[in-house]
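Checked the freezer inventory, then went back to the computational side. Two predictions to log before the end of the day. The first one is the construct we discussed on Monday; recording sequence and tokens without edits.
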Amino acid sequence: MRKMAKEYEMSRESMRTIVKDKLKMIPYRMQKGAFLNQKNKTLRMKKTRKLLAGTKDGSHLTTLFTDEKIFTVEANKNGQNHWIIVTDYQSACEKEKILNKTSHLASVMVFAGITADDKTPLNFVDSGVKVNQVYYWEVASRQFSEFISDADWPASSPDLNPMDYAVWIYLTEKVSSKNYPSIKALKTALIKKWDEIDDDYLRAVIDAYPKRLKACVEEEK
């Protein structure tokens, strides 16, 4: 808004009014996404249609959706979106509003899965261990029978995985809003918030799954 207002020699308020009220446009933050070539797009659509057809019998309600994610001991904040008004830099530091960015953060990888009414324990993956389908089965198959194999899952599709589009976002919001003094403290916070995820939330998350598949298919039409 500032750059456009300067270019057209008007106030930011006037530019904001034009964009919002006259043009009915909404600002969105740029986000990274996977690039799919035509071959991958075709394959993604084929697998998505198959998964959507499979939801008609309600089997997605008992399907185990899994994923892994890395959490760090440092708060997950974007300096461009978190401002503080103080008289000087030192005051901000004293109020713990300045985040010290380090090159090699202490971190932990977690693996977990959910169904519409249940979830696996939150598993901490040892350093150097490759999380793959074999690991999924070793950890989760003892408790859950339904599972989507790598061969059936659309590539580069975090928008279709409930763990990506809802669960990790929820856990990040609950846990990664502050710094932690140690990995142990981070793990304690992760376990606590994971255990607090209730069945109502899980059901709502899984109920969105067929809708996302359908939206993906309709977008291609």
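The second is the one RB wanted added to the comparison set:
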Amino acid sequence: MIGSIGQVYGSLSNLNQTYVLSNENISSLLNPHLASTSNLTTNFLLPPAINEDSNSKKFYICTNTNRHYYYGSCCPYVSEVSGIICPGCNVSMNTEAQFVNQPKSVSSAVASGSDGKGYVKEVVTYSVMDDLTVVPMSTISSITILNKFQIKDLRSLEEKTVDVGFDEGLKLLKASLQSKTVLTDVFLKKK
């Protein structure tokens, strides 16, 4: 696979069961369900400022009661504009439909794993390497990494804290598809 995105999948699928709550949780990370196009709650591909509150949006359905295909509505059409002519029967679509949001308990369970408890057991810390390999962090693994990169003087190391927002997330995604040095490319290289 080009870039580093394959490293994420490979390292997560190889995590020892000692570190994860269950195989189902890791499976949900490795094989996520596609978002339904009928789920209008939040578009995670847009920056937060562009996302609209679905409760403030209005939807209109056909008012023709002569033909009942879908719970009193003539046709399966919906419009965001009142008064649009229904393509199924040429009647004005001006009856406001009630929008039903996904319950918060369901959406939080989806976000954090099937049981809502997360993915890892107890207090486990992970290292994400420059190529996006994910490994459990321990004293031994840290020493191994130092030896791998032939670090002799610990004073040569530098800690860097980064904030990851929408723009950084897009840069990380782009770099993960093109590079084996994702974190360096996004956070350390001068623009």
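For RB: Strands lie at 59-61, 84-85, 92-93, 95-97, 126-128, 134-136. The mean pLDDT is 74. Let me know if you want it refolded.
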